[in-house]
Amino acid sequence: MLAGIAGLLVYVIVLTTGYITHSNSNIICKVALPNTKDDEPLTNNGTEYIFNCANIDSIKLVRVLGSGVYKKAYLGEYGTGRKVAVKVLGIPSRNFRHDRLRVFMKEILLLQELKHRNILKLLGFCIRGDKFGSNSLRDEGAIAVYEYGEDVHRNKSFFRQLPLPERLNIALEIIDLFIYLDNSPLGSMEMLDIGSNHFLWHDNTLKLIDLDGNWQEPSCQSRDNASCEFNLTCVDGRCLGQNAKSNLMKVKSLLLDQLLISVDVLALKRNTTGHDMMARRYGIDALKQVISMLNNKPNAQEFTFTWVRKRLMDARSAL
To answer: Containing H/E element for 305?
Structure first.
């Protein structure tokens, strides 16, 4: 069964992206990728990836960044020292041996469909099979290359050092990301977990690195709203809006404990003077509403990503 799913994923890649399979070596790679010069920026031009099976072994692995059940991540360098993140298959355990390649390729497929500034960008990949533990990328069975980002979730003072308007910008980008995921090409997505450890700092913003989640809203009995959380309505057998609400409940700690940490609303009001005092106070009140709702009334029906976005926009424009 699992082998069949993995085979289907390969088939989907072949059909949707123009990749070809060499049956004699079980290699999937892009045809006729233009060579990338050392001084060219590592960006996806929308039609091609930077790395494929032909050039992926030109990346030098510098050190291990982390490892999990399914994969292992390295810091890599390319060309004149540009940094990238490289993922390969992890050491198989007895319970997850057959799932590894399927999960690895699922992540690649998701990143081909989901395009957002706050999702870490896929720069290329090469699938040769399920070999692992090689000393060279030339022999690894499954490799994916991503933008490299800084791990900031253990640095408690990182966001506190940023000016409040900059933190509000980042918060708005995160809100927009989850509005996008609620209306993605794959349907509404509910993240299994959301925390600062699910993001990296790249290009002056947070980038989501983990797309594990549910891609369909929970089922329910028609007209039986009691089966839906947050007093939501059952529409066509689905709890409409539950994935987004669940994400908002999970993202509130990221907003409160990282981006809006130590915001003293009273001090902001006391320091508000000048001809724009009324506008600034309006923005401060909007920010106060967000913080109060995050702390005290996250279950309220009116508490949505759109509601938060509107008030954060008001706060940013005034501060």
So the answer is: helix 305-318
